Amino acid sequence: MNETPINKAHDEKFCSDCGGIIKIKAEICPKCGVRQMSPSIQLNESAWMSVTALIFAILCFLNWFNLPHWDKDLTVGVLMFSIASLVFSIFSLQQKRKGKIMSIISIIISSITMLIVIGRL
Ligand SMILES: [Zn+2]
Question: Cα of 19 to ligand 1 centre, how many Å?
Fold first, then answer.
């Protein structure tokens, strides 16, 4: 019956391991050294879609400079990249994932790429 009452401030949380009171922003508990559920890891996980979209968009963008040399295979390949980029970026935006700006850039680049491809068909 000698326990100290738990007074947790609004900017504090309980350590996921030892239960000690630590700052909400703390990544590692200063008492036991256990890493907390890091919001930055969740952020990276949810940003992979927009990053993937951007990578595909960059592949499309690089091919713009090679436009006079596009043969049928390359045109189809670039079209695939732009569709993949568009799908990933739209999903990313719909699910309100991180990397909104990357997704928007990807949509713009992939849309222009599709117009170029359509113009060549
Ligand atoms: Zn701890």
Answer: 6
Match 């006079």 to its residue by tokens.
68
94 C-alpha to center of ligand 1: Å?
Answer: 37
Distance CA 47, CA 103 (A): 10
User: What rounded mean pLDDT belongs to the chain?
Assistant: 87
Could you tell me the distance, in angstroms and rounded to a whole number, from the CA of residue 27 to the centre of ligand 1? 11
CB 21, CB 14: distance < 8 Å: yes
Give the tens place of pLDDT for each residue, 65-98.
Answer: 988 888 889 999 999 999 999 999 999 998 877 8
pLDDT on residue 38: 56
If DSSP codes are grouped into helix, strand and coil, which group holds residue 25? coil
What is residue 118's three-state secondary structure? helix
78 to 11, 64, 84, 85: CA distances (angstroms) = 49, 9, 10, 10
